[in-house]
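Is fructose -6-phosphate placement plausible here? Inputs below.
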Amino acid sequence: MNNSNISINYLSIKYQPAGQFEDTRYEKIHNIVFSNSVDGSICVAQEIAELIKSKQALGEDCILGLATGSSPIKVYEELVRMHNEEGLSFSNVVTFNLDEYYPMDINSVHSYHYFMHQHLFDHIDINPENVHIPSGTVSLNDLQKYCINYDLKIKELGGLDFQLLGIGRTGHIGFNEPGSHFNSGTRSITLDHLTRADAAPSFLSIDNVPKRAITIGISTLKKAKRIVLLAWGHNKAVIVKKTIEGKITSEVPATYLQEHNNTTFILNDEASQELTRIKTPWLVGSCVWDEELTGKAVVWLCEITKKSILKLTDKDYNDNGMSSLLVQEGSSYGLNIKMFNKLQHTITGWPGGKPDADDSSRPERASPRKKRVLIFSPHPDDDVISMGGTFDRLVEQGHKVHVAYQTSGNFAVSNHEALKYAEVIKDVSPNDSKIDNIIHKFVGSGRIFIWFEH
Ligand code: F6R
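Reply from A.M.:
I modeled the complex. Tokens:
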């Protein structure tokens, strides 16, 4: 179910136990899927604002647990907007951030101190004394005591009213990496290699990413009265599925949230793609068999039965939750042929279209006969590795083909690597002055974008 249209009702539906309904029967954590992260973030900001205001009305402090990273940025932006335009006051708000790199200078642009001030604290009326962010400057000797005190402060204030979380691809929440104990308190921790690799682009290299951090523990988090976890994008889809549908394990610390009875995951379409009800909805309940879903389901059936389309039987369909599709289509025989033809029409030896051919059911139109084609290649070799044959055909069949090699200049492909390719081209076409320009213009700029014509 896509809930992007429920933004107004978000607060009233915010908690329905996962697994209560047919389509969520594989799920152990309540979640809401938005078509985009902006709508999701705005709803979460509304929930936080409502909480702050309700506490204000009671004359109480509102204790918020806050996260850094890319996921909550829009939530903070919306809270700042509400402060500026709607008078939302943070005067009764006390915050505790989840984590900080260790060691880390407070003024470093990489510090979570810097991040929180840049995105939130510098723009609202929070009392600076009410802001708590683990300090990356505490001496090693004092670290343990410092962490215990961090937890004590939260406890003294009555615990966290609301905890905002992101999730790492290792399944970490805060910096509770795989192996974290469900009973862990605030402590220092060694960061997982994957976490450091994910942070590398903003540090310019993985070597610059600190190896350690201070993080609030799982036990502290689980005592929060309300938890909302944000996950956006394809690269979170696998870990989101493991967390929501998998068994509780220290290998995926976020699965501990299955034991918290007031947690909601806010996802966008991409992050929800691996959930059973979204990836294979025919396995969880009745579905509307439109053309797109039918195609997706038949390809999936081929994969799990390891059969080609024309060999699928009625039994294969029935055994794999697709009996309603058979009822709709009559028999596997007719359905198989229909799907076979449909997929066959997506294959062509004329990737730029075949001149003077009936192209009504082909992927590429026949006219204009010759086209200008642009291939985007994230790495300098992707064009050849991933679509070398198609590339060759396009050139052979007379199209004007361009390749744009996208490089980050610092991480995925180093400047050095990108320039090496430019120099090879220079050797092949010594009279091409454009290559010289590229080489001179972009050296040291941190970003190289090379464009070749074939
Ligand atoms: C940050 C934090 C981390 C991040 C997580 C996701 O304070 O505790 O757990 O929430 O690594 O990071 P993003 O949002 O950058 O994908």
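Short version: Residues 37-57 form the longest helix (21 residues).
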